[in-house]
Amino acid sequence: MASMIASSKVVALIFFLLVSYGSCTSIVNFNASHITADPYWVPARATWYGAPTGAGPLDNGGACGFKNVNLPPFSAMTSCGNQPLFKDGKGCGSCYQIRCLKHPACSGNPETVAITDMNYYPVAKYHFDLSGTAFGALAQPSRNDELRHAGIIDIQFRRVPCIYPGLTVTFHIEHGSNPNYLAVLVEFEDGDGDVVQVDLMEANSGWWTPMRESWGSIWRLDRRRPLTGPFSLRITNESGEKLVAYQVIPANWAPNAYYRSNIQYQAFSSDFSSDAGLGSGSGAGLVISPAAGLDTKILGVIGLICLVLCRLHGTDVP
Ligand SMILES: *[C@@H]1O[C@H](CO)[C@@H](O)[C@H](O)[C@H]1NC(C)=O
Ligand SMILES: *[C@@H]1O[C@H](CO)[C@@H](O)[C@H](O)[C@H]1NC(C)=O
Question: Of all atoms in ligand 1, which is nearest to the CA of residue 239?
Fold first, then answer.
């Protein structure tokens, strides 16, 4: 479990999509220029796990390493993704619109969820194991329970950019970090919602050292010689765009602490705004708030729990 994964964060609304519709072998494609042209919905199946109105795992975390996903900006609109969605952790923090049309209790309205966890049961080519909250959100008003009762439903999905109004890319120094081992969770990147590389520069060293994916959205660096802060962090998104958070981690950094940067990706080009009606509607799913779960509480090695939950749940699937 610990060997899987890596990446980042989260939520909200509007557009961006990939995938070629109908092709069962298609893989999610991040070429944004396709998105405005082909905003196709792709078939998938959905299940749910955890408490009926909960955020998934009992600890409100998941295999991505995010914490407090019951709170904004995730607000429990979260999902486990199977491998084509979770991508060994690289899919952590990706945002998708989902909707259901077939079950009579479905509202048909798109909702936005973020990938915060993983599952690997062979339920469908694309399988969203949703939080109870997210699953229920696909229903018509007051028919949430009826829909949840269905257990497994056909849905459609499409990738959308994540948007975290008022939030900048935030780094969380993970529990157990020390001068010879630094583990950093990267969160709240607008746009694709995850990063494909993180590099670190020690105080005045003048060069970047690549960090490596530890698990989920957590990146780590192991050093025999103690690392000297402050640290600058450089993140690279799926488009290859690099942003530098200059000396975002102070010399007197501490584990279990959040450090907010002043950098943020552009979520999308203006081409997206026409579809952004979603962004302002309350039905759009994830509501983002600057409160953003900047809680210093850390829950430690979390992914295992969800993995187990996902697995248990998976065995119930007809
Ligand atoms: C995106 O797709 C367009 C149209 O197929 C292509 O011209 C362009 O080079 C692609 N961009 C990237 C970054 O792959
Ligand atoms: C990567 O970042 C650039 C710059 O902010 C942005 O224009 C681009 O859309 C981002 N790529 C993705 C896939 O979000």
Answer: 13
